[in-house]
UniProtKB/TrEMBL annotation:
<keyword id="KW-0378">Hydrolase</keyword>
<dbReference type="GO" id="GO:0016791">
    <property type="term" value="F:phosphatase activity"/>
</dbReference>
<dbReference type="Pfam" id="PF07228">
    <property type="entry name" value="SpoIIE"/>
</dbReference>
<dbReference type="InterPro" id="IPR001932">
    <property type="entry name" value="PPM-type_phosphatase-like_dom"/>
</dbReference>
<feature type="domain" description="PPM-type phosphatase">
    <location>
        <begin position="52"/>
        <end position="271"/>
    </location>
</feature>
<protein>
    <recommendedName>
        <fullName>PPM-type phosphatase domain-containing protein</fullName>
    </recommendedName>
</protein>
<dbReference type="InterPro" id="IPR036457">
    <property type="entry name" value="PPM-type-like_dom_sf"/>
</dbReference>
<dbReference type="InterPro" id="IPR052016">
    <property type="entry name" value="Bact_Sigma-Reg"/>
</dbReference>
Amino acid sequence: MRRCRLLASVLAMVITSKRDTSDSYAHGTQADTMSLPSEMLRAFLPPRTVCTDRAISTAVLEPAYRLGGDAFDHALADGVLHAAVLDAMGHDLASGLTASLALGACRNARRNGADLPDLVDTIDRALHDWFPDRFATGVFLRLDIATGTLHWANCGHPHPLLIRSGEVVAGALDGPGELPLGLSHYTGAPRTVRTFSLKPGDRLLIYTDGVVDAKGANHEFFGLARFTDFVIRAAGAGETAPETLRRLMHAILEHQDEGLTDDATIMMIEWQPLSPPLLDDTRPHLPRW
């Protein structure tokens, strides 16, 4: 088993290393022809998963192929997990450009040492200056990996969800609604940054409306209850976060079998400082073949 895990790890590294240089990889991961906005955004996205031995952030983005307004980002720096999920208005090329600009402004501010209020303000100003008739919703989070202290700002986006001990903690990460990114100049009010203390084993879900609004053949929405129940059952079965999101996205696509009408993005963050590694340890001592 150890050798199999090691071999799987090596193969995964080979595949990942070819992702940015092989069109064959791109063809193999697409179910349909991708639109220009979706193609532009896909080029900007980070790896699906980043993790330490205490925290993991993993995300999936399933494009509607003819659209392109969703984006996500996550990174680790100085003991902090930085994460963001964005959803730009519209279903056209401008929506892809808006999301790309917001993502670029987010990374630029973060890498220049901006705190969370300044980061959000940077994105606000960038959208207002370059696309004054456009806006985007978004959630921005910073998790102190050592303590589990979470700071986040919600800019007109669906509220993040907290799953603790096998159930959704109602309203844990809710708050008064705020304007989307690019519109704060109308009020001049500063963005609100909230703080919450996670407990070991907590899972956060950040998603776009294309997830819960996916509609089946009987016109039934995938819905929030089905969404959270899937994650809770997977956690109870001991499934890792990346595998949970992979199967969850397949369930959403099966529910809406004619294809998505809006991009669907899900990010899951898990904080587990007191347990074994959140991913299988694929780095044992090398066996003697």
